[in-house]
Amino acid sequence: MANGMTRVLHILDHSLPLQSGYTFRTRAILKAQDGLGHAVRGLTGLRHTAPLTGVEPEIHDDLPFYRTPGKPSGPPGLSEWQEIGAIARRIEAAAREWRPEVLHAHSPALGGLAAVRAGRRLGLPVVYEIRAFWEDAAVGNGTGNEGSLRYRLTRALENEVVRGAEAVVTICDGLRGDLVARGFPAEKITVMPNGVDLALFGQPLARDADFARSLGLGDGPVIGFLGSFYPYEGLDDLIAAMPMILARQPDARLLLVGGGPAEAELRAAAAASSAAHAIHFIGRVPHHEVDRYYALVDVVCYPRKAMRLTDLVTPLKPLEAMAQGKLVAASSVGGHRELIADGMTGTLFPPDDPAGLAAAMADLLEDREMWPARRTVARAFVERAHDWSRNAVRYDSVYQTLLTRKQAISGSAA
């Protein structure tokens, strides 16, 4: 490490050009670290599904990424073991070429285990960053069951990475607290909260009234959700609340932008609702067009259901909405409470309760005089505590501690 610059190789499940909350956080981290003077590259495992270009490293948005060729194959257990080996070998090859000083692996655990294995062979410190517990994410997505064999094995692999890494990072206090409760030392775990790249989300567009009318939104007010339609997001509760919201706000409209596993059921529920005329599905839109739809929305609503995933993990979307100058309303699950101060930066309502959601939303829509102040306070909160250009500095102390420790060990060995 020289002149404050560190060479960091980030090990990732997937990356740009794929678009997801995972890739957007990765992009923000790498861009911010690059802006601070660090040299950064990414390396993806076998789960990255974009076609390989044949050029190494691939460049996307001026960021370089190494790829691990191949696809997962074979029976469960053996397939994952082979996958870890393939990623570890790719890390070693990239490290011999590029000479990183730190391996920074991001969940899930397969990449983390590969980084720990490669780090030991290379003599490089490993930072492991947990964005969510993937066994809980599988439950939330409807692809897993809490307490199942797969759930327990995924949790055991995560524990193995946490033990093997020199430092651990989580995106929120909920995840950190859960690891400490498992017996891991608190001093090993640092919180790097979700952030917003204000260069991307900090300049909201003006509302296009003609565009709003073309979508059937009229003059509003407009409640919006922009994101993935997973069961745990609770959009069924929002749809169920719409008739009660219309009883107090007849001109209110609901704009749903995105798609996902729960989409078919949500569309059916909306079609059967007495508020069907006020619920508008847009489908997925390119990321560069999201701002245009944000501009149509007065209140962005996040009615997440209560479960381990939502209680432990802070989402990124409410921060993006605050940066866009939007009012935010959300269920009072743990992940939301860590981000939103009720009555100050947003409105909280009880989870899994359409009537409670409707009452809170109607109250918010009726109290328009406080909207400008709420938006100002929320935007200032993002700038102060969740701007990636500031948050990324927190990694520096973690890297510096590990490199100083490595130098001390090397010196004593000499």
What keyword list fits this structure?
414 residues; alpha/beta; Glyco_trans_4-like_N; eight-stranded mixed sheet; hexosyltransferase activity; 16% strand; Rossmann fold; PEP-CTERM/XrtA_GlycosylTrfase; Glycosyltransferase subfamily 4-like N-terminal domain-containing protein; Glycosyltransferase_grp1
Structure notes:
This protein is an alpha/beta fold and 414 residues long. It folds into two domains: 7-195 and 388-413, Glycogen Phosphorylase B (Rossmann fold, 3-Layer(aba) Sandwich), CATH 3.40.50; 199-385, Rossmann fold, CATH 3.40.50. 46% of the residues lie in helices and 16% in strands. The chain has helices spanning 21-35, 78-98, 109-122, 134-141, 149-164, 173-181, 198-201, 209-214, 235-248, 263-271, 290-294, 308-312, 317-323, 334-337, 354-366, 371-385, 388-391, 393-413, and strands at 7-12, 39-44, 58-60, 63-67, 102-106, 126-130, 167-170, 189-191, 222-228, 253-259, 279-283, 299-302, 327-331, 347-349. The mean pLDDT is 94.
